[in-house]
Amino acid sequence: MAESDPFLPQPPARLLDADPARRTSTTFDSDGHRLAAHLYRPPAARDNETMPGIVMCGPVSSVKEQTLPHYAERFADAGYTVLTFDPRGFGESEGEPRAHYDPWLVIADYVNAAAHLMGHPEIDATRVAVVGVCMGGGYALAVAARERRLAACVSIAGGYDIGGTMQAALGPDALAAYVRRANELHDRQRRSGDVAYIPTIARELSADVPLALMPTAEAYSYYDRTSRNHAPTWSSRTTAASLEPYLTFNAISQAPLVAPTPLLIVHGTGDTVLLPVKAQAAYDVATGPKELVWVETDNHIELYDQDPYVTEAVGHVLRWLSGIVRAPEDRSA
Question: How many other β-carbons are positioned within 10 Å of the β-carbon of residue 257?
Fold first, then answer.
């Protein structure tokens, strides 16, 4: 990573390092797929002690070693048992075709992850929350709409309407042409049986790279760095067919369905990838108990693995959950 990378933090901000010793590998079943997961336990946890839980899902294409450890370690320090996972077809999880990204399939895995944690013998099933980051934040709304036993729903730097954002930037005709290219590759796959892939990231679109799941310099900065340093199972390619469901998923439509489960939305003020106006729109249509918190940021990925942004977001979540999903030390409060 070049020193001139504009998305690296500038002092006093800093990159966070996760501690692999804080997590334990585990698995669970999701619609017949064995999914790889990590479990984070509070440092002072005692055997057979029943605790509250948090289930987390992260950014598009990411695996459990990216973004989520920085949140999970801090939630565990506060007394929560945290479960993170690789969606089907990604990382160490089962699923074919590999690296096919369909929001509704990720949501199904997220629902099954929540049910799995609620069934854990050392988890109080009445005190389990979902906390998603980036697209996982948008998906958290859909999970809470489907899994009515959840105590709370939190979205951090959430992805609510990627297609609408791209249409506003490119115009309707250009976005339609973009998706049409994916349609053609998908149709070629139907005829040949060979899975068509596109780059997961690109600094920008070009004649050589006419399609990519995330064609932005910011995404390139984050995934190139973290895949080399922390997440070797991350896939640099994604199925071309992923663009069809990805660019038509809209979490704003799910927001009213979260009620009566309490909803917290935390979003960066300077996010030019997942626009603040979309977070505001999701908050506005939510009908149950809700809160919207703004974190002063310069870009989107600061809320992935950089401080003070992650620590500030965690603080807002813990403060909010303390009145809904109490950690053990807070029970008498």
Answer: 16
Residue 110 in tokens:
């997220």
What's the Cα-to-Cα distance from 331 to each of 70, 168, 328, rounded to whole Å?
25, 47, 6
pLDDT tops 60 at residue 294 = yes
In a domain, 92, yes or no: yes
What gap in Å lies between CA 184 and CA 172, rounded to an integer? 18
- Longest CA pairwise span in the chain (Å): 63
pLDDT for 3: 57
181 is a domain residue? no
Please work out, in degrees rounded to the nearest 5, the angle formed at the alpha carbon of residue 305 by the alpha carbons of 300 and 311: 95
User: Residue 6: what residue type?
Assistant: P
**How many whole angstroms separate alpha carbon 209 and alpha carbon 174?**
16
Could you tell me if 328 and 79 are in contact, meaning their C-beta atoms sit under 8 angstroms apart?
A: yes
Indicate the pTM of the whole model: 0.95
CATH code, 56: 3.40.50.1820
Q: Look at residue 1 and tell me whether its pLDDT is greater than 60.
A: no
**Residue 172 domain flag:** no
Give pLDDT tens digits for 64-112: 999 999 999 999 999 999 999 999 999 999 999 999 999 999 999 999 9
Pairing of the two strands 197-199 and 237-239: antiparallel
E-state strands within the chain: 14-15, 23-30, 33-40, 51-57, 81-85, 123-133, 152-156, 197-199, 237-239, 263-268, 290-295, 306-307
What is the span of the domain harbouring residue 89? 14-161+251-330
Report which of 273, 212, 243 is spatially closest to residue 102, judged by C-alpha positions: 243
Task: Count how many domains the chain has.
Answer: 1
| 117 within some domain | yes
